[in-house]
Specification:
Layout: H1 6-13, H2 25-31, E1 34-42, H3 50-67, E2 71-74, H4 78-87, H5 102-120, E3 124-138, E4 146-149, E5 152-155, H6 163-170, E6 175-188, E7 194-204, E8 206-208, E9 214-216, H7 226-242
Parallel strand pairs: 1-2, 1-3
Antiparallel strand pairs: 3-4, 3-6, 4-5, 6-7, 8-9
Length: 248
């Protein structure tokens, strides 16, 4: 089920990231035409929903890529190749602490990418999944009581909550963030560099109740709206296409 921890999420929100140098769809098609589709994963808090979301998105993502001119092949063998390399490698784990040697493991991952790239004649690898990102909201009445993230927007008040009764005591600050689910498309080259990314918001995972407390949505009410899932897919590909052309 969902294991939402507000404190850790707020800590996550405080992190700042620079804007990456991503390639847009046209550049990807021209320079990285043959794409190896690796897998679909979810963040650990959403593991319960992974089978359903994978079944919904995997084929749709690949079909959309093909419609855009990409040649898409199955690259799910990547982690089998990685596992074989790990089994042949000494000192991958510290003999005293059992801790993974991250630097060595990253080298093996790159070797696995390069091996599969050579075997399948792949230009780039695609990792797809659903994670949790901040959805921005404002208590400005003109915002319509909506939180917005990655193309998506949704009412941040739970069903049945009367805005006029709760908003006055709810917000100390004028703005804030809520946890939102996002579909992502992450493209990597054989050196494990992220060369492009597309993201689309799906839905909020929690909203405010009539006491102004954060209320996590019930699992049976999450990801049950197919139109929202399709919207997220469209948003992700729109985001992918929107990157300014960069030369690599």
């Amino acid at each position: 089920m969902i294991r939402f921890i507000p404190l850790l999420f707020l800590l996550f929100l405080s992190a700042c990231k620079s804007t990456p140098n991503y390639l847009n769809t046209d550049t990807l098609v021209a320079q990285y035409n043959r794409i190896g589709y690796v897998n679909f994963t979810t963040t650990s808090e959403l593991t319960y929903f992974q089978p359903y979301l994978e079944n919904f998105y995997s084929e749709r993502v690949q079909n959309e890529l093909r419609s855009l001119g990409f040649d898409v092949v199955d690259a799910s063998a990547l982690f089998n190749v990685l596992s074989e390399l790990e089994n042949k490698t000494d000192n991958l784990y510290n003999s005293n602490t059992g801790q993974l040697n991250e630097e060595l493991h990253n080298q093996l991952f790159i070797e696995a990418l390069e091996t599969l790239k050579s075997q399948l004649n792949i230009d780039a690898f695609l990792f797809v999944g659903v994670d949790i990102v901040p959805a921005h909201f404002s208590n400005n009445v003109f915002s319509g009581y909506n939180a917005s993230w990655w193309g998506q927007s949704e009412d941040y008040l739970a069903e049945g909550v009367d805005a006029s009764e709760v908003l006055g005591s709810l917000f100390v600050n004028k703005t804030g963030h809520l946890p939102g689910a996002r579909l992502y498309l992450r493209f990597r080259d054989a050196q494990n560099n992220i060369i492009s990314f597309g993201g689309g918001g799906i839905e909020l995972l929690a909203r405010f109740d009539d006491d102004g407390e954060l209320e996590t949505k019930k699992p049976e009410l999450l990801f049950d709206n197919e139109s929202q899932l399709i919207e997220a897919l469209n948003f992700a590909f729109e985001n992918l296409a929107s990157h300014r052309q960069k030369n690599r």
